[in-house]
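W.,

You were right to be curious about this one. When I first looked at the sequence I had no strong expectations either way, so I just let the prediction run and decided to look at it fresh. Below is the sequence, 538 residues in total, followed by the output.
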Amino acid sequence: MTTSVIPQHPTTKFFLTTSSAAAAATVDDTTTPKNRPIFESFGKGVARDFGNRWPDYITTDWSDGANAQTLATIFFLFFACLAPAIGFGSLCDIATKGQMGAMEFVLSTSLSGILYALLSPQPIGIIGPTGPNLAFTVSLYGLAQSLQLPFLPLFCWTGLWTSGLLALGSLTSLSHVVQYLTRFTDEIFNVLLSVMFIFDGLTDIFGKTLGVPVSVCSATRSLLTILCSIFTFVSATILKGMIKTKYFTKRLRKQLSNFAPAIAVVAGSLLAKGLGNRKYDIALDSLNFPTTIQWKLVSLSALPNWARFGVALPSACLATLLMFLTQNITSRLNNNPNYKMSKGKRTSVLDGMHGDLLVLSGVTALSSLLGLPWMVGATTRSAAHVRSLLKISSDDEGSSSTTSIERTLEQRVSGLGIHLLMLLCMLRPTPRQWLGQVPLPVLSGILLYLGFTSLQGLDFWNRIQGLAKWDDTKTPYTTRFTIIQLIAVAALMKVTKSQYGVLSPLIVALLPLVRKFIVKRIVPETSLNILDPIEEGG
């Protein structure tokens, strides 16, 4: 595949070629069986998912993870998964007045991730904390306060009801409903989450440097914060693209590309330490990792009987919709046929979804009983996980560069390793001391890298960049379609960042109706079938 998207410097062109080849989050559902019924006989879909994966579980799911590329993925995703857990946990700690904080979020991320990597039929996905889940938890705390109910028992009962509803959905193959989604919804959802990562990264960088009283010390600290963040981001980007250059040997270029984010974290940390001058108090804040684990079982009897059904059950219906949509859209994007996954006897992007949802329901029940936050499919982190495991072949001969995806390293080692490492850091002091040397601006740079790379290769993102360019081949209908998607992303961003963030999954669920009743009136069907083929929805 020849790169034809917006010419880039050779060191960054890699992202466009590989991501375009992978069609990063735009799912081509041409392999999806048409007219698949929404419901199947009880347990049929789950049994199929686990049965198809079992032969790989006892063999190549482990041996395929014994390589340097998997090790590099573990180091990169460790930081990419840890930063949101601590960030969301710190916000939740404030909102719930200490009843659920960073310790609970990191512990839940690690335990849930370990169980998911061990048990799910499709372990390539990453589950973790998300913005909508955090918004729901905070809203549930506010509801508990207004009704004078204990928060953790209400949270636990809501989680148990949610777990039951998710299990019911998985056992009846309800995940088949995502076959009716199209690229229109996929791209909006993926760009939303990518932009949120970029927004959060920029907020961490510039939000803490602006508005600070001006002094030599504060100015130096602000400059060092920006420098370390940008240095980390640029370093990771350049090293990742090293595979497309002709520097060094082919083997060394490949390893530099695989370990790019991990090298960037180390380099950014060394830069901060080298430039920091404690005499003038300009050393940057470092990662504050939770140091204690508090095991506890929530008292189910502490919640009155009327609240178990009158409050927890209605709340669980909304939580189920939230987690069901997020999990299945993430799985749908992970199962992109262009990633060339083969394990589990794949015939459709729907493969593995029912089993994954059942595992998620069990993890949700366990987290609820322990008073830990719920984890769900983390779209941006999952996309980064898949991309880190792609086996790319490249041809650098001549003036053009071509790349193609050979396959994806489908295994359980990386997902297990990421979350075991996280748990190890909570249990042992030495890893915590090492993490304490990582400045927060370096993690902000990794968030920028994660968000930026998730955008590359998306048709939607390419069309956004093309809005400012004159192109004779671009039709006004393409512009209209792109603007509608931009409006949807902006609206979802506004809702997600507001006190009504818990409603964002409802808006995502309504996007197919927007396409059917609004977009089709603005964009002719012939153009719409090119921009968003209905066949992709299955």
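Here's what jumped out at me. The first helix runs from residue 13 to 22. And, maybe more interesting for your project: The radius of gyration is 23 Å.

Coffee later to discuss?

I.
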